Amino acid sequence: MLLHGLVIDRLVEGGPAERSMRLDSGDVIKKVDCKDVTEDTFPGLVVGSDIPGSVVTLTVLKASREGKKNVIIRCMSRESIDDQVTMFELLTNVKEVAGGQNDVVESVHIATNLRK
After folding, report:
1. Number of structural domains, the chain?
2. Same domain, yes or no, for 56 and 91?
3. CATH of residue 44
4. pLDDT per residue rounded down to tens, the chain (116 residues)
5. For residues 22, 74, 6 and 28, what is the CA-based torsion angle, rounded to 10 degrees?
6. Under a CB-based contact definition with an 8 Å cutoff, are residues 20 and 71 in contact?
7. For 1-116, where are the E strands, in sequence order?
8. Going by C-beta distance under 8 Å and a sequence separation of 6 or more, which residues neighbour residue 67?
C-alpha cells in the first residue's frame, strides 16, 4: 500500500493490503497490533521482520465513515517489497513511455533501456 502520512493513498495490486479486501484509499491507519502509530513508527511495525506470512492487525478509520475496523494482513519480506517496488517503477516507466503508443512491446523495450 502506498501512504500519504498514515492515509492510504493506493493499494498495490497483489499486495497484502489489497488481498485483504478490507482496506481502501482514504482509510487512516491508527494502530498496528494495538500500538498507536506515527509516520515514523509505522514502517518498522509492519515490515519489522523478514518472516513472510507473519501477520499484523491494523486498526483503521474507514474513509467510508464505517468507523474503525481491525484488519489482519500478512507481512511481506523486505526482499518481496523490493521486488514489487522495482516492478512498480518499471511499469511506471512503461506507462510514461507508452504515452499514445499502441505497441506495448516497443514501450517495454524503450522503458527497459531507460533504466540502463
Report:
1. 2
2. no
3. 2.30.42.10
4. 788 899 998 887 777 888 888 899 999 999 998 999 999 998 888 765 556 667 888 999 998 877 788 887 776 666 666 776 777 777 777 777 666 555 555 655 555 554 44
5. 20
6. yes
7. 2-4, 7-10, 28-32, 35-36, 55-61, 68-74
8. 61
Residue 39 shares a structural domain with residue 8: yes
Same domain, 84 and 72: no
* Closest of 35, 33, 28 to residue 4, by C-alpha: 28
The set of cell numbers assigned to 96 is 510514461
Nearest one of 54, 3, 47, 52 to 29, comparing CA atoms: 3
Record the pTM.
Answer: 0.62
Residues 38 and 90 grouped into a single domain: no
